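Quick one:
INPUT:
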């Protein structure tokens, strides 16, 4: 049979059908959206035809290709143009909020969140077609299994795109990728399109905040809470109130904040925000290994978590007591120095101590607050951070270890997927081992010590399965070492004594069972 000629009006009609079914677009808004799309594609007639057999993403790709062929957009603008299309068929922000509130009132908050998550994916704000490219596996360990993800859903821009981005005019609107003003933002060569982003207003500690799902989905129901006010990250007493307010609203989620200092604070420190989601991150499964008591806070369980880095777990039923104790520990840690453990709170006037806080509401109707103690000091021997992965681990992970990774879910750079395969080829003998060539290879030179170690241990005639296992095991080991590096109190007898000294400084003493 001859191939049917692609008809853009048919595609527009089909996309609007999809929007009514998957995005809950109303009948009247469908008419509006279809007219806007017809104008965008310079069409004077609508169609009654349907092309559902193509599937959503294929249909969208064909619409973008048509726009390219008709010079409605350029090749460098295809992702921005796709965002524009989907923004027109996604219900308005106010309509989404109204439907969310109605579902929450009648069917419960979990069903309402499913609705928001579904439209975030169906509108391509969360591009599952890209997310599904990510490679994930589990690194088992007695202290707690880690989740390892190689992130292929954020492809690096090519040189042409980088050059175009540099030529774009500077603008302060929106001020950052987390600002509320990103709702409906058209994007540019530097910033992603956000036409189909939809957020839900919430109140945390008496302030206006907003809830959305993350477009990167590093774990189940990965969500973000962001302050309406563009202000720097700050961990203070009100942080704990906000975290507990959040879990009161969404008791089946955890919520946490990146620390508020460089190196230990994640990638965006310019906007106060939290990250949360389903309670699936590995640290939340860890058990306590030592308990402490204080005569004034007997209603709160205080313990050290059996985890890679240094975590204090507070658990109790009374919110106010938990907030007060969390603030007390934070204030004490901000000023705490222990030269024996190489911990200095400040150098001159620069602060170094902070925490990565996480909160949950538990099945036994108690609250938990996890305080991961952090320090971002550097010295000549450790220019990237004393409690940061050393340079011999940077081939696997160089970036700061923020909230998600500190809790045991590693997001490794996409380059590692291809470099990993090349190292496997060396171990199987598919590629010739040539150390001089590796040293001159920009993609492999940082992995030279890793390659030498693996070749020494396994040779160059492994089966594909054996080589894959060897490389993955090496990556797993490095990820565990990275978390060990971030521990301000090491998992050694000396580290345990140092942790004990900190507890003594706040008048807490070990409980002997």
């Amino acid at each position: 049979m001859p191939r049917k000629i692609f008809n853009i009006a048919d595609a527009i009609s089909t996309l609007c059908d999809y929007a009514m079914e998957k995005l809950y677009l109303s009948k009247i808004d469908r008419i509006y959206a279809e007219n806007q799309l017809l104008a965008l594609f310079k069409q004077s007639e609508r169609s009654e035809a349907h092309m559902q057999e193509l599937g959503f993403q294929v249909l969208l790709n064909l619409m973008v290709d048509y726009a390219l062929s008709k010079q409605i957009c350029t090749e460098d603008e295809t992702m921005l143009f796709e965002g524009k299309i989907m923004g027109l068929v996604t219900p308005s922000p106010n309509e989404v909020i109204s439907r969310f509130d109605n579902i929450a009132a009648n069917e419960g908050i979990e069903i309402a969140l499913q609705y928001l998550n579904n439209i975030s994916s169906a509108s391509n704000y969360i591009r599952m077609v890209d997310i599904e490219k990510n490679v994930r596996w589990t690194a088992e360990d007695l202290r707690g299994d880690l989740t390892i993800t190689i992130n292929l859903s954020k492809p690096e821009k090519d040189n042409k795109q980088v050059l175009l981005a540099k030529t774009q005019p500077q603008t302060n609107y929106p001020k950052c990728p987390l600002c509320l003003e990103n709702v409906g933002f058209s994007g540019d060569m530097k910033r992603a399109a956000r036409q189909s982003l939809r957020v839900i207003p919430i109140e945390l500690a008496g302030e206006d905040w907003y809830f959305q799902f993350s477009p990167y989905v590093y774990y189940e129901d990965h969500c973000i809470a962001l302050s309406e006010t563009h202000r720097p990250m700050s961990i203070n007493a009100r942080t704990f109130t906000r975290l507990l307010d959040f879990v009161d609203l969404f008791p089946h989620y955890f919520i946490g904040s990146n620390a508020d200092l460089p190196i230990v604070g994640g990638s965006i420190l310019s906007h106060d925000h939290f990250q949360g989601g389903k309670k699936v991150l590995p640290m939340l499964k860890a058990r306590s290994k030592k308990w402490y008591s204080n005569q004034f806070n007997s209603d709160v369980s205080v313990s050290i978590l059996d985890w890679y880095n240094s975590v204090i777990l507070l658990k109790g039923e009374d919110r106010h007591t938990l907030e007060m104790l969390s603030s007390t520990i934070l204030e004490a840690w901000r000023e705490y120095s222990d030269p024996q453990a190489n911990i200095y709170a400040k150098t001159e006037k620069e602060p170094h101590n902070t925490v990565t806080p996480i909160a949950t509401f538990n099945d036994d109707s108690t609250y938990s607050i996890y305080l991961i103690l952090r320090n971002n000091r550097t010295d000549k021997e450790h220019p990237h951070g004393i409690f940061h992965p050393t340079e011999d681990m940077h081939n696997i992970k160089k970036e700061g270890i923020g909230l998600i990774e500190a809790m045991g879910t590693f997001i490794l750079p996409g380059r590692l997927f291809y470099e990993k395969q090349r190292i496997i080829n060396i171990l199987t003998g598919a590629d010739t081992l040539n150390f001089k060539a590796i040293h001159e290879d920009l993609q492999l030179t940082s992995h030279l010590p890793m390659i030498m170690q693996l070749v020494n241990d396994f040779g160059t005639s492994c089966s594909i399965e054996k080589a894959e296992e060897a490389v993955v095991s090496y990556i797993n080991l490095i990820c565990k070492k990275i978390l060990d590096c971030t521990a301000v109190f090491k998992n050694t007898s000396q580290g345990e004594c140092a942790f004990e000294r900190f507890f003594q400084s706040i008048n807490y003493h070990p409980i002997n069972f």
